[in-house]
Each structure stands twice: as structure tokens, then as C-alpha cells.
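Researcher: I'd like a structural prediction for the single chain below. Treat it as a standalone chain; there are no partners to consider.
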Amino acid sequence: MRSSVPGEQWKGQFTTIQKSGQCLGCGKTIESIHLSPEEYDFLKRKILRDVIDGGDQYRKTTPQELKRFQNFVKYCPPFDIVIDGLNVAKMFPKARESQVLLSVVSQLAKQNLRVLVLGRKHMLNSRAQWKKDEMEEVQKLASCFFADNISEDDPFLLYATLHSGHHCKFITKDLLRDHKACLPDAKTQRLFFKWQQGHQLAITNRFPGSKITFQHSLSYDTVVQTTGDSWHIPYDEDLVERYSYEVPTKWLCLHRRT
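Model: Treating it as a single chain, here is the predicted structure.
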């Protein structure tokens, strides 16, 4: 569908954006999802101060355990992938939780990725959902940190991912909204969401006996943006809020007629 703005030399159409970030309507490239080094350092400082050190209202982690974790990360090489182990293990209710976690870790380890699994101590107690031999295999393939059962995993997930550097990605279905809400201003929240979109990997499906499929993280930003002579507006049906790892499939492309 194409339309024009009355009294203005603008032309609009619904379109899609390629994985590369190029608009199929006008050929322009959408703004990159990647933060600049300055933005990344700014966000890292804010997260460490306002979410991890100052987010007591959103977590049950003790300062002693957080310190134990920080020392653990300090003496590990940077990770490529950080996994919220309990969250990932529960993604497929009909499957055994330790089996799901082992499947994910095995697939990433085969790609020679350095993986950190964050979990709870009860995951090491052998029972129906947590087979001892499968958890031992997880620990052979990945670095693991098992927190107290009352602890919340998100502060550890954010800390390890940001500490490892810009290349590190994380896997969880959690939208991290509470932690975004901890941040002090709209600019920091916007940077956090942009960082989250570029670093959160989603598991899209899992068929019995087959490989787990990961949705690739975005290379382009999914907010309204303009270059002066063009506008690109993500179009969400029925005003439904997208998850951080969901990509808008339809865009409105407006460009000025020359």
C-alpha cells in the first residue's frame, strides 16, 4: 500500500526490513542496534550501580553471595554466552529440565563458545527433573555458578554478560522489565533496551531429537527513526507491546520525494 501526505512531497508504503537492516521500500539502511563504546561503558556503569548494587527492592541476593559471584567472574576468562539455567531448563514443560539444559549447553559448546550457566543449588540434587549425570555433563562443558535457592538470577546474568564485554550474549525468556525500571532516566532505559535487543538470544523451537534453534539477535534498531528525508516506523498490530527479542515484521517507510 502506498499513500502520500497532503501538501507535502512525501510518499509512504508498508514494507519489511532485511536481516542486514536494509529497507526493501527505499533501500536505506536502518540504524544499527550496536551501542558505541561510549554508550556501552555508560550503560555498564549504570547497570552495576543502579541495578546490581542498588536494586535491593528487586532481588533477594545477599551482598555476600554477590561478592562471591563477582570474585568467581573476576578469575574466569570472558564468556561468549551466559545462560539463565533454570529459566532455560523450564522452556519445554514436557521435557526433563536437566536434559533441556544439557541440550542447549552441548549445542553451544560444539561451536567452541565459552559458556557460563547460572543456576540454583537445588539443581544439583538428583531427582526426577534433575538427573545427576546430565548435570555433571553440563559442568564439564560450561563454567557454572550455583547460587542459593532464594537468590534471583538476573543480577548475576547482567553482571556476567556486561563484564565479559560487548561480544557476550545471554539466554533467558525473562524480559528484565524490573531491572529496566530500576534505571534512573529515559536515556538509560532506552540504551538498556537497545543493548538487550542486540544481546538476548531467543530459543525459537525445539523438536524431539533435533537441534535447538536459536533466533539470531538483531543487527538493526527497531524504534521510530529518521534521516531527515526519510522515516521508518515499526508497525505493531493492535498496539501489542513486543518482547525484547521479537522483531517487527511490518514497517511504515516514508520518504521525501525529490
